[in-house]
Amino acid sequence: MKASKLLALALLVGSTVAAAASPFVTLDRIGAAKLVDPGSHAKPTIVTLWSSDCVYCKKNLKLFADMAKTEPRLKLITIAVEPAGEGLAEPLDRLAVPGVRFAYGDDAPEALAYAIDPKWRGELPRTMLFDGRGGKQVLSGVVSEADARRALGLAQR
What CATH class has 24-152? Predict the structure, then answer.
């Protein structure tokens, strides 16, 4: 199956698949570019980049998982900036992170990073917040719930 078709299928199915049952979708440059296009997101969406050895990434993942539980319109997509391997899903499963899970594929990591965000220099965590109306905000570091809600166009709690 072509990467673009696989990406479309993963995005379609992703919001209804339980986190523990979600396999990783291998990400290539073409899929990455489509994934971060604001026009690809018709509802509030978080795309978060993380790695298994990033403590701050796990703080964001917990916040985003909690937000997804209380906001039925919110879609959460994770991108592991490493290849899928044994144990990679464990942090996501432990935090009950829902949504589609991507992991770096065979393309050079630098090429994937550039396709995701040409301005990104590799700092983690990296989060893209889409409001579902064409707006996109990109943040590095730990994200506050207030900042996420504001960028996503969701009511403050």
Answer: alpha beta
Nearest to 45 by CA among 116, 100, 107: 100
Q: Spell out the domain ranges in the chain.
A: 24-152
Condensed to tens digits (0 to 9), the pLDDT of residues 6-32 reads 445 454 444 333 334 459 999 999 999
Contact yes or no for 67/75 (Cβ under 8 A): no
Enter the tokens of residue 89.
């899903």
Residue 52 vs residues 45, 72, 90, 105, 146: alpha-carbon distances, Å: 22, 27, 9, 16, 25
CB of 132 within 8 A of CB of 42?
yes
**Are β-strands 100-104 and 24-27 bridged in parallel, bridged antiparallel, or unpaired?**
parallel
